[in-house]
UniProtKB/TrEMBL annotation, chain A:
Keywords carried by this UniProt record: Cell membrane, Membrane, Sugar transport, Transmembrane, Transmembrane helix, Transport
Entry GO terms, CC: plasma membrane
Natural source organism: Frondihabitans australicus
Name assigned to this protein: Multiple sugar transport system permease protein
Family annotation (Pfam families): BPD_transp_1
Transmembrane portions of the chain: 32-55, 94-117, 129-151, 171-192, 230-250, 286-305
Residues in ABC transmembrane type-1 domain copies: 91-309
From TrEMBL, chain B:
Protein name from the UniProt record: Multiple sugar transport system permease protein
Comp. bias regions, Basic residues: 23-32
UniProt xrefs under Gene3D superfamilies: MetI-like (1.10.3720.10)
One Pfam short name: BPD_transp_1
PANTHER family according to UniProt: ABC TRANSPORTER PERMEASE PROTEIN MG189-RELATED, ABC TRANSPORTER PERMEASE PROTEIN MG189-RELATED-RELATED
Length: 319, 313
């Protein structure tokens, strides 16, 4: 994302030069046009994003008690949050989710994108569309669907195990439910990530491959040394989106809870915890704190990933 | 877009006769496959099967009655009961399912059209104009992409609640109008798709800035707009958290919230609620069809729209 901002910023002076305003009134007219064009977006941006964000930050600095009403408590809620075992274990669970599910999903998406782009598999256009379809399936439906498939009542997985005379695993048990969730999320989003990577692959100039082929490079070598570095920004984009998505997990665990109430607690993910605090416990101040703290964690991890990526890119360039 | 054309040419490109013919064909269709690899084909289709099997299960199960759901194998048909399932889906709770479907369509189309328009106008302005504060504003949009939207849902609920907006369609539509990623995608897209010299020519012809935007730029931005529109459509269509907290009245629910309530009722059992399983399954199938069709139908547009965002992202 930062790279694009840089390209945009560097593209701008050139455009301005070409467009060199004849008079200052022309320039003013263009400024006004630009402001009018961005105004609708920034109105809703302010009202629906900036204001709630600040309001949430404001709420998180107060505490409401039955006796004594609402009082300013500074960062006490944050201290509570970062020592709250329910919040921390939710974060830890998402951390585990992040280090297992995100690499699996991104690598699978990258493999599929490269396989289809290589043009060496038959009917790959059909496969590409099939793999993408789950993205258009609502998370709610995806979770219900997999919930039934995992289920012991009439789930086909259990049916197959029983038909083979084997003991079926309970995929919704305490021990297995996190893996089952990872599978649902992977199923939902591989296609989306694959399409982003595939689109990026399609815009690499072909002559690069021809040159590499003349030099005797095989398909794997071309994929590893040309294609993957060329679509690095797209891969980074999918990783960042996946990190944000992971920590925001709500739909899937919330819905699985009704199928497997013993395996998923009301603080299973930080978001589910914030929801419970706000709408079951009616503690909006602490709920806002959890939401805000979660936002901090996501921003920090996203920045760390971006900086790490930039550093490795720079090293790659100098090497 | 080269992606589409090259594949269309790619299909009959197998079994070349002469060496020269092969060489020229390969050059003309770019990289779309010279030799096919059976191993890669098998791997790719095994992966595709993983994505397809749950949906096949959904289609098969939607044709069964409740008894067959429990007693027959998930990947084989029982009595064909699809029509009866759709009938009971349509009559349960006075046909509320179709209410939910209409609500979903209204919420998501309204949100997507407006969100896409706002994102297009803003993205175009960022790409094509230099104005005081543009950099800071653009970075604030980029930063906002990273803000978890669900973290905003609770304060938004509280604000809407004090404004008396909860439990109205506005509560679902208004927060869905903001698409920072859409602005980012459109600015990247517009930077390439709209030629600055074309704008300059229009200015010399005496066209005003808005006329340039509406009559020249919008046409060039087509694939980008379709992409942002579709992804905004999916975001609202599939939204669950926001309507769940904002809405209380059943007749205002979108499909996601309605179906999940039915599912919870059928899982908790009791009172013959198990009969709901087939309704949830058939309803799920119906709820995914419109988006799947929209994506397949418009794939040429949104894929080329994503290409620019993906590369420069």
């Amino acid at each position: 994302m930062t790279t694009s901002a840089n390209t945009l910023a560097s593209a701008r002076p050139a455009a301005a030069e070409r467009r060199r305003p004849r008079t200052s009134s022309d320039k003013r007219r263009q400024h006004i046009a630009a402001y009018v064009l961005i105004a609708p977006f920034f109105l809703v941006f302010l009202a629906m994003l900036v204001v709630p964000l600040f309001y949430s930050g404001y709420l998180s600095l107060f505490q409401t008690k039955l006796v004594g009403g609402t009082t300013f408590v500074g960062i006490a809620n944050y201290i509570r949050a970062f020592t709250d075992s329910q919040f921390l274990s939710g974060l830890g669970r998402m951390g585990l989710f992040l280090i297992i599910q995100v690499p699996v999903m991104v690598c699978l998406a990258l493999f599929v994108a490269l396989a289809i782009d290589s043009g060496r598999a038959k009917a790959s256009t059909g496969a590409r569309l099939l793999i993408f379809i789950p993205y258009a399936v609502p998370g709610v439906v995806a979770t219900l669907l997999w919930g039934y498939i995992y289920g012991t009542d009439f789930g086909p997985i259990t049916q197959i195990f029983q038909a083979l005379g084997l003991h079926a695993p309970n995929l919704l048990s305490n021990a297995n439910v996190l893996g089952s969730l990872m599978n649902i999320v992977t199923w939902e989003f591989v296609g989306y990530n694959m399409v982003i990577m595939y689109s990026a692959l399609r815009s690499i100039p072909t002559d690069l491959y021809e040159a590499a082929e003349i030099d005797g490079a095989g398909q794997f070598r071309i994929a590893w040394s040309i294609k993957i570095p060329a679509i690095r920004p797209a891969i980074l984009l999918t990783v960042i989106f996946s990190i944000i998505g992971t920590f925001q997990l709500f739909n899937e665990p919330e819905l699985l809870q009704s199928i497997a109430p013993n395996a998923i607690s009301s603080s299973y993910t930080p978001n589910l915890y914030a929801y419970t605090l706000a709408f079951v416990n009616h503690d909006v101040n602490y709920a806002a704190t959890i939401a805000f703290a979660l936002g901090f964690v996501i921003m920090i991890i996203s920045f760390v990933v971006q900086i790490a990526q930039q550093r490795s890119q720079r090293q790659g360039a100098s090497a | 877009m080269s992606a589409v054309t090259s594949e269309k040419v790619g299909a009959p490109g197998r079994g070349a006769s002469s060496a020269t013919g092969r060489a020229s064909r390969r050059r003309s269709k770019g990289r779309a496959g010279s030799r096919k690899s059976p191993l890669l084909t098998v791997i790719l289709w095994v992966i595709a099967a993983y994505f397809l099997l749950p949906l096949i299960w959904l289609v098969i199960s939607s044709t069964k009655d409740n008894g067959d759901l429990f007693s027959t194998f998930g990947y084989w048909f029982g009595k064909f009961n699809l029509v009866a399932n759709v009938e009971s889906l349509s009559t349960y709770q006075g046909g509320i399912f179709w209410h939910w479907l209409i609500n979903t369509v209204v919420y998501s189309v309204t949100s997507a059209v407006l969100a896409a328009f706002f994102a297009t106008a803003a993205g175009y302005a960022f790409a094509k104009y230099v104005f005081p504060g543009s950099k800071a504003l653009f970075y604030s949009v980029l930063g906002a992409i990273m803000i978890p939207t669900t973290a905003l849902a609770i304060p938004t609920f509280l604000l809407f609640s004090s404004a008396g907006l909860t439990d109205t369609p506005f509560a679902v539509v208004l927060p869905s109008l903001v698409s920072p990623f859409g602005v980012f995608l459109m600015s990247v897209y517009a930077a390439d798709a709209v030629d600055t010299s074309l704008m300059e020519a229009a200015r010399i012809d005496g066209a005003g800035e808005f006329r340039i935007f509406f009559q020249v730029a919008l046409r060039l931005l087509g694939p980008g707009i379709v992409t942002v529109l579709l992804f905004a459509l999916v975001a609202t269509w599939n939204n669950y958290f926001l309507p769940l907290i904002m809405l209380n009245t059943q007749t205002l629910f979108p499909l996601t919230v309605g179906l999940s309530q039915w599912e919870a009722a059928s899982s908790s059992g009791g009172g013959g609620s198990q009969a709901l399983f087939s309704s949830v399954i058939t309803g799920s199938l119906i709820s995914i069809l419109p988006l799947v069709i929209a994506f397949l139908y418009l794939q040429r547009f949104w894929q080329s729209g994503l290409a620019t965002g993906g590369v420069k992202g």
